Amino acid sequence: MRNISRLAALLVAGAIVSLPALAEKGKAFATVNGQAIPNSVYEAFSSEQKAQGTPDSPELQAAIREELVRREILAQEAKKKGLDKNPNIQGQIELARQAVLIRALLSEHVRANPISDAQLRAEYDAIKASLGNTEYKARHVLVESEEQAKAIIDKLAKGEKFADQAKQSKDPGSRDNGGDLGWSSPSAYVKPFADALGQLKKGDYTKTPVKTDFGYHVIQLDDTRALTPPPFDQLKPQLQQRANQQQVEKLVKELRAKAKVN
User: Fold this and answer.
1) 177-224 pLDDT, tens digit each
2) Average pLDDT over residues 71-82
3) What Rg value do the Cα atoms of the chain yield, rounded?
4) Measured on CA atoms in the order 191, 119, 3, 258, is the torsion positive or negative?
5) Which three-class secondary structure state does DSSP give residue 107?
6) Residue from 87, 108, 85, 84 nearest 21 by CA
7) Alpha carbon distance 66, 27 (integer Å)
8) Environment class of 205 (CB within 10 Å of its CB; exposed 0-12, middle 13-18, buried 19+)
9) CA quadruple 239, 244, 248, 250: dihedral sign
10) Residue 26's pLDDT is what?
11) pLDDT grade for 2, boundaries at 50, 70 and 90
């Protein structure tokens, strides 16, 4: 099952980017075979197109009108064939109805609970602090057993090249590149790995195997450099999106806790 955070991300994206306008049925903007298409449907479709960056113009209005007329024609034909009575189709229609209401609810919730720049700045500072001030260029060999890792360390002590030992690594992402992991902050690694990496000097490798949930590592530190994170203004959109997702996640959890489900 999709986790709450993933669900929140998808729902927020749908709510903010392409929320159709929800308007009461009123004056018809077109009639097809005697069936009126409410103006609210036109406004909803138009709002969706504009939200996607399409500029308003007479051409867009004409295109929307033609699209909705064609949709109505096809929908009428589907009803003539009795497709609207199919239980599976009815289920899909209900899911679509729910999706519109959910997007409306989440969009309204995000608008009603704006995230201040101060909150975003605090999140930025917390992330920056967790990254530290230094990036590490490391490489590793990952093996199943402690004995295998000790054997690799013995070979390195005898002068064998780290890149050669990396060929037996379980890590397919670095095995064919001499074990190279590129530049990363310690926070990118699991704690035992990060702790061991932080204790190495440039050019050194771990003299004892480092155990993690992935197996046993032999780690070498190639180089270090000062970490310069992107400025706040550059990351602000991502921080805003993340904060919105957290808002939605909290709302979903609260409503789920209150719901009576039999």
Assistant:
1) 999 999 999 989 999 999 999 999 999 999 999 999 999 999 999 999
2) 96
3) 28
4) positive
5) helix
6) 108
7) 18
8) buried
9) positive
10) 56
11) very low
Q: Residue 115 corresponds to which tokens in the numbers above?
A: 């995230």
Per domain, the residue ranges of the chain are 12-104, 134-226
Torsion of CA 41, 47, 52, 57, to 10 degrees: 100
| Distance (Å, whole) CA 147 – CA 209 | 9
pLDDT digits (tens, 9 = 90+) for 237-260: 999 999 999 999 999 999 999 999
Q: Is the pLDDT of residue 73 over 50?
A: yes
pLDDT at 85 over 60: yes
Domain 134-226 has what CATH class? alpha beta
pLDDT single digits (tens) 92-118: 999 999 999 999 999 999 999 999 999
In the structure encoding, which two tokens stand for residue 130, read together? 């967790």
Copy the structure tokens of residue 122.
């605090």
Pair 33, 76: CB distance under 8 Å: yes
219 neighbors 140 (Cβ within 8 angstroms) = yes
Q: Name the pTM for this structure.
A: 0.63
- 236-242: long-range pairs with CB below 8 Å, 24+: 236/120, 236/124, 239/120, 239/123, 239/124, 240/115, 240/120, 241/12, 242/123
Length of the chain: 262
Residue indicated by tokens 């990351």: 235
Residue with tokens 């001499």: 178
DSSP SS3 for 206: coil
Contacts of 78 (CB under 8 A, 6+ apart): 84
Instruction: Enumerate the β-bridge partners of residue 205.
Output: 220
Are the beta carbons of 8 and 248 closer than 8 angstroms? yes
